[in-house]
Model the fold of this input.
Amino acid sequence: MNCFGIKFRITTFGESHANAIGCIIDGVPAGLEIDENYIQNEVDKRRPGLTKFATQRKENDKVQILSGVFNNLSTGAPIALLIFNENQKSSDYEDIKSLFRPSHADFTYFKKYAIRDYRGGGRSSARETAARVAAGAIAKKLLEKFNIHVKSGIFAIGGIEAEDLDFEYANGSEIFVLDKLQEDVQKKVILEAKKDGDSVGGCVFVKVTNIPIGLGEPLYEKLDAMLAAALMGINGVKAVEIGEGVNASKLRGSQNNDQMNKNGFMSNHAGGILGGISTGMDIDLKVHFKPTPSIFSEQQTQNEQNESVKFSLKGRHDPCIAIRGSVVANAMVSLVIADMLLLNASSTLENLKKIYDK
Amino acid sequence: MNCFGIKFRITTFGESHANAIGCIIDGVPAGLEIDENYIQNEVDKRRPGLTKFATQRKENDKVQILSGVFNNLSTGAPIALLIFNENQKSSDYEDIKSLFRPSHADFTYFKKYAIRDYRGGGRSSARETAARVAAGAIAKKLLEKFNIHVKSGIFAIGGIEAEDLDFEYANGSEIFVLDKLQEDVQKKVILEAKKDGDSVGGCVFVKVTNIPIGLGEPLYEKLDAMLAAALMGINGVKAVEIGEGVNASKLRGSQNNDQMNKNGFMSNHAGGILGGISTGMDIDLKVHFKPTPSIFSEQQTQNEQNESVKFSLKGRHDPCIAIRGSVVANAMVSLVIADMLLLNASSTLENLKKIYDK
Amino acid sequence: MNCFGIKFRITTFGESHANAIGCIIDGVPAGLEIDENYIQNEVDKRRPGLTKFATQRKENDKVQILSGVFNNLSTGAPIALLIFNENQKSSDYEDIKSLFRPSHADFTYFKKYAIRDYRGGGRSSARETAARVAAGAIAKKLLEKFNIHVKSGIFAIGGIEAEDLDFEYANGSEIFVLDKLQEDVQKKVILEAKKDGDSVGGCVFVKVTNIPIGLGEPLYEKLDAMLAAALMGINGVKAVEIGEGVNASKLRGSQNNDQMNKNGFMSNHAGGILGGISTGMDIDLKVHFKPTPSIFSEQQTQNEQNESVKFSLKGRHDPCIAIRGSVVANAMVSLVIADMLLLNASSTLENLKKIYDK
Amino acid sequence: MNCFGIKFRITTFGESHANAIGCIIDGVPAGLEIDENYIQNEVDKRRPGLTKFATQRKENDKVQILSGVFNNLSTGAPIALLIFNENQKSSDYEDIKSLFRPSHADFTYFKKYAIRDYRGGGRSSARETAARVAAGAIAKKLLEKFNIHVKSGIFAIGGIEAEDLDFEYANGSEIFVLDKLQEDVQKKVILEAKKDGDSVGGCVFVKVTNIPIGLGEPLYEKLDAMLAAALMGINGVKAVEIGEGVNASKLRGSQNNDQMNKNGFMSNHAGGILGGISTGMDIDLKVHFKPTPSIFSEQQTQNEQNESVKFSLKGRHDPCIAIRGSVVANAMVSLVIADMLLLNASSTLENLKKIYDK
Done:
């Protein structure tokens, strides 16, 4: 099932080597400026082929707006975005079409559907996330109308962690690092893995600032639950932390509690969410990406005929998916917050009166 | 919004001090034995008042089946389960009814809804999770028909981790510890926190064994995404890890990849999920609970009138919510797997033919 | 699946002879007065045992509010309503437990689920509609806050149609007739059918007044589509008409078009809906109920063993389900309008600004 | 909201004068042949410009498959279908861009969204239904695998009704008439309306044959309720009847009941549905379309500035939308049945065992 969100909802389609990928964004409030350049700019951030830290595949990833916009404004109709696939080398996959690349989804797709589009991973390819980023760009524009900002960057590469979170800096960094003092060593970790025909994991930090108090729909569309789903569903993510995260399980209440005074919260161990609802403090998220499963050393695997085989992968691959993953994480968080913004609109009779009373 | 799941779906209701809590379970396939004792037994595992490691509130938590069962079999109609609330001491909350307990949901509920049922946390109380556990018991029974088992226990308390995972042992342990060698020290950590009027965090491990290959509905109801939502939505959870989890972000691909041979996977760093679909290997999950926010030392906070106030909490509280949380995590995982089992039934034309061809 | 609605959502449970029936109402905006007497009063309108025009079964149908209300106000938490079943005579069904009553759902439930609760029709019993009416009462209260009124009554019995629509009069009529001039003959039609051990069909008219312009979520949650689903889903309904209805298919555009001037619409053939969105004119609906399938003459049928059998029904049955059906239709329409009211809250950026801008 | 269906789900996008219209079809079981020619053929049935009974707009309506298909088989991934818009004459709408065409959705879209794409009705244009027909073609192919057939044709034009239902004949008829004896007079009714610059309403009959017993998900996704929503949501539909339909409300139970014997049902007043579940008998549906609101005589209306205006419509319009509507109705019914086929797959434990037991 390929929908995400309830009121601000995206539906995506497309495989790595299909004709196109794209999405339909439903529930965009009418009257929002839809800026094609802004969308393109966001999509370009995750576009491959730009630096030596990413795959050398070159995709233009040109986004077309097919519907839902009139005079540059959203009309309330669904907005369809389309990206035609280019520069696919299906021949890269000829050698491996009947075997299951380790730690890819080849095996599970084949077993679930009894058929798989082996070219570039088919539907399981991270290429689909370009559609998420395009949709996320519209969500971000909506959030900006309310001065809500979703920021992200690289927190750690191969365990080398940032000590400072500078989202401005990350925006300008080739690999979106948050801590410029760690940039060199983090880059080195990636390039060494790449040189060895290997890959390396990384951790992305996402922060939401100026979020209204009250977003999140308990008990089963809690803000933290929806963020966890949105982030864990990104290709390669194996852990999600909110606020104090894993560390919270090691602390005492007296250490982890966020006391308050008349001015508000005195700390933010909660990461901006209590009871599944935003507190108004920053939302702080850590998203842990596994290393790219595509590595170049010889590996052992199984093929569709259930035989043991050895093989060596060819092709062009990211040595660290966390980097482009940070753009996707940002988009997914933006989509969740936008959805929650809309869902909360009818939370009180008072809100409804603001809209319907004349 | 108070529904969870798509085809195997629960809807819960109830507050800590309402007349009752309960749930409706929809989508249970007809013909499943519904065993009231089994449900009661599961609910009893998270029932308060049983040991010195949990709150001393005594609730009978007697589950009534209201509908959907005939001759002890599910009929396809929704199954409603009801637990009347007893032994509520609303007076415990008189002193604090206009202030926001730190790190509870008092503040966020009040700001979102402009009204809150302050008694025992109202809807945000972990008491609601009894309904999840009751529903989870029915999911577990369904899974057992296919020999799928969902196991859980305490992995760590206050950072003291298990080195062994013995789910049999956990079942018999007062605090569900997985590693009997750590039980004494883990208990001590809790009791010391309790003695200090404090609380402590903990980590729960959940394992699913013998899961069919192919469960999970990509791309937005991926198995890992749905598990993350289910677990992060439990009261007090701040991080969720799957398989190698946080550690995956520190590894190289050559370390983290699960190679295969003709017999299947040679390792399980993935924690049983690739591309959002089950591999057939064990699903391995770590769920990190923050320390109980209810502590007894004096704390500073804000009240509804926006003033700074100091207060000391009274009442009966769990020193470590992870313990009873392990029962809830087990139930939530069971509900997700049951939902995925049903959703996958129409994944191929071949499956449909098994059902409809005469 | 037993949910209805998207944002204002009900989930019902219960069978005719289960312990109870009831519902959970989710999405009620916080701050709405919840008046137990008002709910009870609505439920009493469809309660059996009151007149000679309805079944003589006596059910108290006492509604209990289990959750979601604090100080008589909705809190944003789900509101659970419970009605315990009483006065069930399961023995009435002993004779027919293995046969399929013609034009009841006995056959289809048995074939679908391979098990059925034969007592009183089980889940397929119209008794479940009491839960809908209880939920509808809360929707009606919400609508009244915006001066929206949902009115209903009997339009026709056995083809004898009203020529006047007097909803005030219907409220006071034993059988909710809209046209007092037709009341005697309509009653006579029912009593004659009853005397013959037979039953008769009828048509209900529902009118919504003062509805805001703009409700309805095109293209797949159009107001008319959602109303059609809500009404066609009521037990025994076989046709739904909006505005000119069936007659529209016989007219020319010049006859059916609703021209406008600066004061608004000059006619209302559309029945208040264009493009799936409310025009602000009255919503006009006709709901056609088949005659009660429970009749007392000898009938031929099949039993679970696939044999031909003849039988005569006993028990207590409504001679005309349209009468109590009019109360249910009113409730269902109220639920749809409430849902649309909430869903529309985020339709424009302007609406969101009213809520979130400080 | 622009999704329809639960497990077999379509999401559509596009406006009359946008770049394109299209849809994403989700939940198609893997392994189904996807035949581009078959889809094109279905879409061609509702294509404008073909006969003098339809608008003279010429659209090629060439359908492109963008994703979800590999080696001509569905892969389980979402199938995106795209139709670029051509031959749009936006200038046709220049004159009327600030006024509300009577009985069109101009007024309601403008009031709901405060902006509207006035060109060709924008999102409210029946052009969107081409996407439904394309999606419906895939549903039909799935149903054919189980020998389920969805047939349709014109039952009545301007009140002139068929006396015979010959679906074979309808397929070959220019206006899809079911009764060849009525064809001439039905055509004449249309052409006379057209000659007068007027339009006329009509009624479509849809029949589903060989449907499995047991489809329909009570109580809120009943088969009849879902069909009613699907059909009432088609542009211009004002009434939906199932089986005996409106007439059922005039009958006695002894006339309307479908008695049975060991061979099954002895009549089919129910139209193939009891308790919201298919009986295995034919599903019989009547769908009533209003006359096209686009007529050429002078009409009075309101403009965006709230003034009374008179105007005469120009352009190219169908004199009777029921004709092309019959193709859309067929598609919508096919989509509903496909969804129910999938949803029913997990209705019993027995069904699940067929899939998961080895």
User: Anything to note?
Assistant: The first helix of chain A runs from residue 36 to 45. Residues 197 and 296 of chain A are 5 Å apart (CA to CA). Chain A touches chain C through 29 residues (CB under 8 Å).
